[in-house]
Predict the 3D structure of the following.
Amino acid sequence: MTSTPTWRVTRAMLLVLYGLFFIVPLYAMLDFSTRSTGGGRTGDAWADLVRDPTLSSAIITSLLLALFTVLGMLLLLLPTMIWVRMRVPGATRLIEFLCLLPLTIPALVIVVGMRNVYTWVNYLVSDSVYTLTFVYVVLVLPYAYRAIDAALGSIDVVTLAEAARSLGAGWLTVIARIIVPNVWSGVLAAAFISIALVMGEFTIASLTNYENLQVVINFLGKSAARTSVAASLAVLVFVFVLLMALSYVGRGRRGAERS
Amino acid sequence: MSSQQAPGVEVVLDGLVRRYGEVRALDGLDLTIKSGEMVALLGPSGCGKTTALRILAGLERADDGNVRVGGKDITDVPANKRDMGMVFQAYSLFPHMTVLENVAFGLKLRGVSQRDRQARGAEVLELVGLGEQRDRYAHQLSGGQQQRVALARALAIEPTVLLLDEPLSALDAKVRTQLRDEIRRVQLEVGRTTVFVTHDQEEALAIADRVGVMSNGRLEQIATPEELYNQPRTRFVAEFVGLTNKLDAQVDGAVATILDSKVPVLDGSIATGAGTALVRPEFLSVGRGDGANAALVSRFFLGPVSRVTCDLDSGVTVTAQLSSSEATELSPGDRVKVTVSPTPVLVVSTD
């Protein structure tokens, strides 16, 4: 890359510009959420994150939803994708198409379509907020598929699995001890992206009258604006950290392989 | 693993059939491998040799027929319960494990204690000459080293049968010969029944006790390397293994007349009438003298022997192998007399 002074200045300016673009709103949120009505600063809004029973339970709900979604997604996707690679490579396109579909369907349409299914889910399983896990697993499929597919593509799944089987490993052992450790970065990426997505999900929960974190934040926005902004900022920072960790994990892995 | 015990078992493939749609990858394959023997399955790609090995390993199912190992029918036993060690064509070491962990993996699955695993792992790594590399990872090893570790890993579980699926074809020529001889040494040392699949005839002839030549999902002939070379049973075997000349022949009973010489015929030849004799280059002699029937076209020096090509007056081009001292007396353009030495040949019907 050219490193003339003009270039360096341009680069620095762009960096500052983008930095401001991201930082200013976040700073504004922080500023607003710590402002006291009578002037001065207060941590009340932030304390509400744990004090307010509706909010704290919504945080826990969303975290648990994220956890269940990750588990559901991995249980569904990982064995399926390994199986397709090993036994029915011809179905790769179909699986990819199915996994990418949720990306192309607007949330509103999904909700309308879901209604009928959820009547039965609520009737047969439960009407708990955690039944949202089913939709969320579908919603995260496009991103999770991509991440796991890339990782699986970097190893010779078929040969490794056959080698392990000939040494006496059953299918579960093959997946848990041979495949997963070698696609771990992809699995982590899929998990982190899923968590980020679920923590930020509003549309579907709201339209199906479930209270997850974003729904409660929206609701609080009308009565306790500062608390709502504090919660938003907390979620944003949490997801930022998560995604930073993700890129770090990916880089660490590749670095280790090169050495 | 002591060499006193005879750890090899007999392997029988009985009428194996495997279809992929319309294609019959295996078309009634029968093969018996004696205990402790090393058999190479040789054939062009698509002849079914790898399919046969994979069915034996349990990685693929046969549509018909069965597999018996040590007298037990294992046709329906899954791959992970067969106790067979396999080395693959592609590099197959587990990337997240060290060499020693790779080798000990099969033992770990069998519940062998940490200490015994280490000891056994070190022992087989010594056997393949990689004792020093035990803490390395696959990506730190050369291709040849990786295949050695794969061999050690397969041997660590004391397999009933050792299966080698073109383990050398990803390696360069020099490493290939080295590792080939090493595989044979190790196999003789551990005495396991071994099946070695390859498309390289030199490899097969060099290390196997017997070589099975396959074509179109069937076994054409299985014999010792010498027998396979000197007494091929079918045209396919004669043409696939080694070089052959095709010469017109007239068969009458057990004797064929080729280039005016009387030559005994091999089993599997046509009984009578005109046919094509498949003659090895070393069974042709070329010299000056009366009754010249060919023109010498070219001469290649190969060290102790030389190869010469001659155009027979009948229009056929033949290759002969002579000692280099004989060959130096000839030069391209010479009129020469080509004769067939009285070694038994295969005569097949002319196509």
Notes: Chain B has two domains: 11-230, 243-348. Chain B touches chain A through 29 residues (CB under 8 Å). Chain B has nine helices and 20 strands. The longest strand of chain B covers residues 23-33.
